[in-house]
# Entry
Amino acid sequence: MIPYTTIGTNDLPAATAFYDELLGMLGGKRAMDFGRGYAWGTAPDQPMFCVMKPFDEQPASVGNGVMVALSAGSSEVVDAVYAKAVELGAKDEGAPGARGDGFYGAYFRDLDGNKLCVCHISMG
# Structure
């Protein structure tokens, strides 16, 4: 249903290094180079995550209430990705933990202030 998600950056080299590390931990690889940004994915038929300098050449800004959730294969992967994000300079927005039946997640803001969640959802 969602083919890709895009967030903005004001420092493409720093954002690219940040997401190469984090998304690599989730099985993601750079899939596309747009010149002003990149897309990472796990397979051609799966959603991609993109980081771009804005098309209008204005500074990237953070959307109030906007958050992107990244899927992890286990709570241990959530813990590891969250720890790596913070190590790389992300700001804590909620340490890893259970947040309801079958939902384990952690929240952080990337180097540009974009809010992300890394989570593992198990049903039943």
Remarks:
- The chain has a mean pLDDT of 96.
- Residues 12-25 form the longest helix (14 residues).
- The chain has one domain: 4-55+62-121.
